[in-house]
Design brief:
Layout (H helix, E strand, L loop, with lengths): L10 H10 L26 H14 L12 H8 L3 H14 L2 E4 L3 E4 L21 E2 L12 H14 L14 H14 L9 E4 L1 H15 L4 E6 L6 H7 L3 E8 L2 E2 L11 E4 L13 H14 L2 E5 L23 E6 L11 E4 L2 H15 L4 H12 L2 H27 L4 E2 L7 E5 L6 H10 L2 E2 L1 E2 L12 E5 L5 H19 L1
Parallel strand pairs: 3-14, 5-6, 5-8, 8-9, 9-10
Antiparallel strand pairs: 1-2, 4-11, 6-7, 10-11, 12-13, 13-16, 15-16
Bound molecules: pyridoxal-5'-phosphate (PLP).
The site of pyridoxal-5'-phosphate has 13 residues, from helix 7.
């Protein structure tokens, strides 16, 4: 049995990487011809299955070696004369089987080498589908407040005029922009006028619109945290022709001294809870970032990630409140309610808000009005606050269980960051290879992500990202025990 190098990335990450791969900037992908795909359109076998079989065969025979990047799905689809969805489906299936993996930068590469010849000295560990999945970034949607959401839907459908069903208004409905401005000013210490709010389909669309507007205005270089998420700002900036530079992250977010060396026109930050390492940007660093932005005329993009979840302290207000003319604020309901809502919001300085609203309308003619009004009603009734008050103890308990299990069963794993959010990073001992632990965990039925794939500067100290928010307490304890076993196995 061939042994996957890593097959633990979440399906969310797979899907998103696959979606963004064509714009990833991955340069030396294998040529379409190298895949030796010969489609038979008359035999009745589905096209995606034929593509899968050719790639699987190439890997099994050693023609496609581990680490070989595959062509972007758009390019392969064009070359084969099939729709892109067919190629994406084939890639996704092979990712699920462990033959391919989605890499930082949003492209897909071969994850395993040709089947090793079994010898008594090398017995490959069996790999199973994950039984316990520590993939990050998942709100527990089983707690979605269906009843109160339904009440808002009923109210809106009963009371809203027929114009509701016409094309949406430019920046989003006035009701939602007002409700969000009230919420952000009250809870996040922001400084928001409803006119500055643009409703978007989640952070992913928001950051894409911001990048397109900044690029059109002449921006050349985008700074991002290193490590940071690899499936939104980074591939989108590359696709827009921007250079992406990493700013190293320490225990309290980015090291601001390194900012001056970036020559960047904008920076994307997760100051409330750095993704993934979990630090909070200190007040001094926030002020230093704003001084840097003033000096350069740069824009700060504040992804207010995980700000709602603090388990042992009060949250720090948004940077936007300190400098509304320099900061673009981005919020999302994905971690608080459900990612399937695709509900996000931007607060944009007055100088840029028209351009961002224009980009939004050009992109998709506006977010669905009905959903906006329902969310506005939900916010205005205080249901959002109530839902967060209900969820905080649930997540906090799971985090506490995780931390206790790590302390007891895997004390070599050193937790990072503050008690907040929906995931926890633990650093590995310096002599332990991160990908070996991830693979050994997968062989024990546990999916966990490493930190190194999210670095721009190459691998250094390894770490594991434990998404705990949608696991039962029992699964968390069992999963940690299995990871402790994997760690012990890798270290011997
Ligand atoms: C760093 C970061 N910010 C924001 C989000 C929310 O994205 P969206 O609103 O598009 O679901 C995510 C999602 O995983 C994320 O990883």
């Amino acid at each position: 049995m061939a042994k996957p190098r890593t097959n633990s990335r979440s399906s969310r990450s797979h899907e998103r990487s696959l979606r963004s791969e064509s714009s990833s900037g991955a340069s030396n992908t294998s040529r379409v011809a190298d895949l030796l795909i010969d489609l038979r359109r008359s035999g009745g076998e589905a096209l995606h299955r034929q593509i899968e079989a050719s790639i699987r065969d190439g890997i099994r025979t050693g023609r496609l070696r581990v680490g070989t990047p595959l062509p972007p799905s758009r390019a392969l689809a064009a070359d084969l004369g099939v729709s892109r969805g067919v190629v994406v489906e084939a890639y996704q299936q092979l990712v699920a089987e462990g033959y391919l993996t989605s890499r930082a930068g949003g492209y897909t590469e071969v994850a395993i080498d040709q089947e090793p010849v079994a010898t008594s000295a090398s017995v490959a560990e069996p790999v199973r589908a994950p039984l316990i999945d520590f993939s990050y970034g998942r709100s527990d949607v089983t707690h979605f407040p269906r009843t109160v959401w339904l009440r808002s839907i009923r109210k809106i459908l009963t009371e809203a005029p027929n114009e509701l069903f016409l094309y949406p208004s430019r920046r989003g409905t006035p009701e939602l922009r007002q409700a969000l401005a009230d919420y952000l000013n009250r809870v996040r210490g922001a400084s928001v006028d409803p006119d500055q709010v643009v409703i978007v389909n989640g952070y992913a669309q928001g950051i894409a619109l911001i990048i397109s507007v900044l690029a059109a205005a002449g921006a050349r270089r985008l700074a991002v945290e290193d490590p940071s998420s690899d499936d939104d700002a980074r591939p989108m900036a590359l696709a827009a022709g921007l250079e992406v530079v990493g700013v190293p992250v320490g225990e309290e977010g980015i090291l601001v001294d390194a900012l001056d060396r970036t020559d960047a026109d904008a920076i994307v930050l997760t100051p409330s809870h750095q993704w993934p390492t979990g630090g909070v940007l200190s007040a001094e660093s926030r002020a230093a970032v704003l001084r840097w932005a003033s000096r350069r005329g740069a824009v700060v993009i504040e992804d207010d990630y995980d700000a709602e979840y603090r388990y042992d302290r009060a949250p720090i207000g948004a940077i936007q409140g300190l400098a509304p003319d320099q900061v673009i604020y981005a919020g999302s309901a994905s971690k608080t309610l459900a990612p399937g809502l695709r509900m996000g919001w931007l607060v944009v300085p007055r100088t840029l808000v028209d351009a961002v609203a224009e980009a939004k309308i050009t992109a998709d003619r506006g977010s669905p009005t009905l959903d906006q009004l329902v969310f506005a009603d939900f916010l205005a009734r205080g249901e959002f606050d109530r839902h967060l008050r209900r969820m905080r103890p649930v997540y906090r308990r799971r985090r506490d269980v995780l931390v206790a299990a790590l302390r007891e069963k895997a004390p070599a794993l050193r937790p990072a960051g503050i008690a907040a959010g929906l995931h926890l990073v633990t650093w590995l001992p310096s002599d332990v290879d991160e990908s070996a632990v991830v693979t050994a965990a997968a062989a024990r039925g546990v999916a966990v992500h490493g930190v190194n794939p999210y670095r721009l500067s190459g691998s250094c100290l390894g770490g594991l990202i434990f998404g705990y928010s949608s696991l039962s307490e029992r699964s968390i304890v069992d999963g940690v025990a299995l990871i402790a076993d994997a760690l012990a196995n890798v270290r011997t």
